[in-house]
From TrEMBL:
Superkingdom field: Eukaryota
One record GO biological process: secondary metabolite biosynthetic process
Chain residues that bind substrate: H123
Keyword set, alphabetical order: Oxidoreductase
Species of the source: Carpinus fangiana
Domain NADP-dependent oxidoreductase: 26-296
Database matches in Pfam families: Aldo_ket_red (PF00248)
Descriptive protein name: NADP-dependent oxidoreductase domain-containing protein
Active site: Y60
InterPro entries to which the protein is assigned, alphabetical: AKR (IPR020471), AKR4A/B (IPR044497), Aldo/ket_reductase_CS (IPR018170), NAD(P)_OxRdtase_dom_sf (IPR036812), NADP_OxRdtase_dom (IPR023210)
GO MF annotations in UniProt: oxidoreductase activity, acting on the CH-OH group of donors, NAD or NADP as acceptor
UniProt keyword Oxidoreductase present: yes
Length: 325
């Protein structure tokens, strides 16, 4: 891993566009409330602190604010060129139709005021009727995804240079295997829920074996959001390790995930917490710490009533996750 600013990086490789470094820690742009001015200010502050990877999605409603923040950062000289940044966005389920993938990416690129994005992900392994993308999805609007055709359209996005890399989000081992069996360009990244209380070892092992980088979203449990949980930040094992180490619970969580070989994205508007979250690269957890964390009782944060009710074409939430609960 190389160092850019003060954050370690992993390198993604593409036969079409060569290599591009992606920061291990990225700044997340999902929020219950997307106030443009607040988001733009947060982007600028994050860039000043050394963040270079920004994770957004068309469904988040934050692409415009991110684009404005990037433009302002360039104008102020906070970064010397757009190439210093790594921008991820995602294809929402109502646009997960072969004929809508490319125009939807064009729209995101325009909204971001960019010529391309670095990484484009399929947001969910679910398709919804066009124009029916409100969350939670209505069951009658949902349908199984045509993975082969949608992925072929994603591959075309990469060939055209609108996305330097393509990947997926919320995909299980089984769905990844199905995708790999018919793809020409394999997914570079699988972005999934992961934290010390939802460790995803089977999925991590599968992705490692297949050269897919795992990016963890909500690594601290997203406490305080409508979809979040306090299971991470209030976990007694993590709190005890943090106290003994003189670290924050967040730092212990992030360091543990870094030691598992994954990348991560998280959001904070607090400058001190943004700083603290970067201070994980110059120390290590002990074997005893790691053993204690490996024994934490597991809870999937997103196993919630609204997700269960939105299982759509799947007979059960277990089928949506291919039994990987």
């Amino acid at each position: 891993m190389a160092i850019a600013s003060n954050i370690l990086e992993v390198v993604l490789s593409s036969s079409s566009f060569g290599n591009k470094a992606m920061s291990v820690i990225g700044f997340g742009m999902a929020a219950d409330s997307n106030d443009g001015a607040t988001l733009k200010s947060a982007v600028l502050e994050a860039i000043k602190l050394g963040y270079r990877h920004f994770n957004t999605a068309s469904a988040y409603g934050s692409e415009q604010a991110l684009g404005e923040g990037i433009a302002q950062a360039l104008k102020l000289g906070l970064v010397s060129s757009r190439e210093e940044l790594f921008i991820t966005s995602k294809l929402w389920s109502s646009d997960a139709h072969p004929d809508l993938v490319l125009p939807t990416l064009h729209k995101s690129v325009r909204t971001l005021q960019l010529e391309y994005i670095d990484l484009y992900l399929i947001h969910w392994p679910i398709t919804v009727k066009p124009g029916k993308g409100g969350w939670p999805f209505a069951e009658e609007d949902m349908m199984p995804m045509d993975f082969k055709s949608v992925w072929a359209a994603m591959e075309e996005c990469q060939r055209l240079g609108l996305a330097k890399f393509i990947g997926v989000s919320n995909f299980s081992c089984k769905k990844l295997q199905n995708l790999l069996s018919s793809s020409t360009i394999p997914p570079a990244v699988n972005q999934v829920e992961m934290s010390p209380v939802w460790q995803q070892k089977k999925l991590r092992d599968f992705c490692k074996e297949n050269g897919i980088v795992v990016t963890a979203f909500s690594p601290l449990g997203a406490k305080g959001t409508s979809w979040g949980t306090n299971h991470v930040m209030e976990n007694e094992v993590l709190m005890d390790i943090a106290k003994a180490r003189g670290k924050t619970v967040a730092q212990v969580c992030l360091r543990w995930m870094y030691e598992q070989g994954v990348t991560l994205v998280m959001k904070s508007y607090n400058k001190e917490r943004l700083k603290e979250n970067l201070q994980i690269f110059d120390w290590e957890l002990s074997e005893d710490d790691s053993k204690k964390i490996s024994e934490i009782k597991q809870h999937r944060m997103m196993l919630k009533e609204e997700l269960i009710s939105a299982r759509g074409p799947y007979k059960s939430i277990e089928e949506l996750w291919d039994g990987e609960l």
